[in-house]
Amino acid sequence: MKLPRSLNITSKMESLLEMSCIGVDPVGVKLMAPKLIHLNLKLEGLTAPQANILKQEMLSVGGDAAVSVGVINCSVNITDAIISGTEKQIYNVIKKLNMQPFGLKKIADRIKSAIGNIYKNEVVLEAKAKIWVLGKRTLVMGILNVTPDSFYDGGQYLKKGDAVKKALQMAEHGADIIDVGGESSRPSSKPVSLKEELKRVVPVIREIVKTGDVVVSVDTTKAEVAKQAIDAGASIVNDISAMRFDPLMANVCVKNKTGVILMHMRGTPATMQTDVKYNDLMSHIFNHLEERIDFAVKAGIKKERIAIDPGIGFGKSPEDNLKIINRLSEFKAIGRPIVFGASRKSFIGKILGRDAKDRLEGSIATVAAGILNGANIVRVHDVKETRIAVDMVDAIKNGSGSGVRSS
Question: Which residue in 55, 137, 345, 359 is the catalytic one?
């Protein structure tokens, strides 16, 4: 017998493929597939009775659950839990929880929803008349900063002609979306006036839409900028505040049926790097994004129009940014497209010892890791080089070249 090897099975398709390779009976394949996929799910804010029952039910099906030591004697009122088991075991527990008291049916529904999202092959994103079915082909969003002070390209595209030329060049190089911003969000940056931001972005967006066949997003936290940008032709609002800064933003997006990107950021660009300590980084970001989605949906925005961004570089340490990239797949449980933006950011420079102008290779490396961990849209400065890398990573991820552009 040869040395056993570990199988990295993360989807039902992978489990089916592996079993077919050894000639498993088709009926057996169907029965075994959910047993080959193992899950670890974290549930937060359970009561002691809920946690006790959950642990017992997981044990009853052959799985397990980790809970606070104080749950057994109810010396703690609230606990988090980590349930661990195969997909089949967890679905069996869901059935059991549906018959239990203490609000466990609602918890069962949440677990079922998370599993469905984790293993969903495709996710839809709508932006006005545009509809993308994301899953196999990663979208590239080209960054167009119409600002004098952005950390990498500030001042290069202040003139409308230069900005439009750059946008059309990015589209030619494979950008699916052009993200136009008129206010820098680099650490310690100061806000600009409404009048100035409108002056910077609206004419550029109008000209891009008139000249080229490309989807435009507007990077802004101001509702009036979003409104006028949409009137000029923008289809997506990329709001780094996740609609926290302007109470009118949600209404603008609802009325115009735009796509929306909701990002995690602690504080403002001016203050975000003053406090980068988290008790649980991933839980903090996950819960923030889920809360902002709930806010947007209650305001009237269709869930299909929402994408999420964990906000790499926005109120995080270099180590935090690496952790987010490595664990990006955890956000798939939310069920919305993941936007990934690490392009030329300072943590890459700190790790590699390079200035912003010399971070191309490091940026592309983060993009590759991001896509393999679940990113659906990558926001980048260097469209041409990134598009080539993205197409290759998509082919690796999908196991074929289908859906990838040919040269």
Answer: 345
